[in-house]
Amino acid sequence: MKTIYLECNMGAAGDMLMAALYELLDDKEPFRKIMQSLPLEPIEIDFQEAQKCGVCGTHIEVTVGGSSEDELTHHEHHHHHHSDLHSITHIVETLPVSEKVKQDITSVYRLLADAEAAVHGTTVDQIHFHEVGEADAIADITGVCLLMEMLGAEKIIASPVATGFGEVRCAHGILPVPAPATAQLLQGIPVYSGSVQGELCTPTGAALLQYFVSDFGAMPPMTIQKTGYGCGKKDFEKANCVRAFLGETQDKTSEEVIELCCNLDDMTPEAIAFAAETLLQNGALDVWTMPIGMKKNRPGVLLSCLCTKETRRTLLRLIFRHTTTLGVRESTERRYTLSRSEEIKQTPYGNVHIKHAEGYGVTRKKAEFEDLAAIARKTGKSLQEVKKEIFHA
To answer: Which of 85, 163, 317, 378 has a CA positioned 20 to 30 A from the CA of residue 342?
Structure first.
């Protein structure tokens, strides 16, 4: 599976995330052209080679009317307008990007607005963005959303996020790090303060992580294809950059499963059937039986149960409770499955559930047996006739 892993050991800011993802591109010129043609005046976007602690990367400098983001943030430059969500949405509609990217940008701003509203005890409609105001932040957010589309990763994973510590000056005065809006946006994300004094994770960076990242933790087994370094402007003892990895992780249709099995020679068929049914009702992936020959030439039954690590202990207890076995064998296996989905097809006889399966170059579809059987009983037709008629239609 095509995966991006973001290493946020020095936090996350919009420009750093954008620069790190930018370095993953094979052909960077199309992205540069789009960004430099954004209808955000008076804005300039400069792609600069940078070096942090001897590591080469990219720093993307966004200037509005000749002032950088840092200058705008700390000095509240007179021409840096504060914007509400409605005006931001209007600006986004004018951007030369796809509808998907426009939707992503608006969704990220919605997260920012929700966080600001929660912190200030007001509504989204009354929120005016300050540090995440017009041109500079729109450029950062647009850049990240556009890069996500261009890179086309199926999954985004990130490390726990360093926030920094201390205090930060913003439009509302001096606030603790992480700033209240940032802390609100980081809910549900593993974070730590780290050893750097200052604001490492900005509201924009936190919102982008909250929106795009599906899992946080250590890097999974991954075949790395490219690495990108997005450098911040400040220098610290640690390399001030977000590192992005692009590569392949294991296919989501492959997973580790556990097989529990036991031999039975003194249970009735009804009791074995009840045990199997109970296991399925309590999370077993599959349950099956096979006839076997046991010691003293006794015919017996092999009961097997497939489960996950999470359901293993529950099912183990149920096997001992509902069977006469004195011992259960366990083995770990890897299971490969086709990805599955379901649709409801309208037919002259009513709705029929159609199951789809695909993967590994295979595509299959199958009608739900109970739906076919109900139609066959109602019409007097055979199952094959009903199936043929439904799929032909």
So the answer is: 378
**pTM to 2 decimals?**
0.63
| Angle ∠(9,10,16) on CA atoms, nearest 5 | 115
The label of the residue with tokens 């960004």 reads: 35
Can you give the CATH number for the domain in which 277 is found? 3.30.70.1380
The whole-angstrom distance between residue 151's C-alpha and the CA centroid of its chain comes to 15
Number of domains in the chain: 3
Cβ atoms within 10 A of the Cβ of 57, count? 25
Q: What is the mean pLDDT of the chain?
A: 88
- Cα 177 to Cα 191: distance, rounded to the nearest angstrom: 12
Q: How far is CA 196 from CA 139, 199, 201, 240, 300, in A?
A: 27, 8, 11, 10, 66
* pLDDT tens digits along 154-167: 899 999 999 999 98
Is 46 within 8 Å of 143 (Cβ atoms)?
no
User: Are residue 191 and residue 207 in the same domain, yes or no?
Assistant: yes
Nearest-angstrom CA–CA distance, 188 and 160? 11
64-116 per-position pLDDT tens digit: 765 555 554 444 433 444 466 777 888 889 899 999 999 999 999 989 888 88
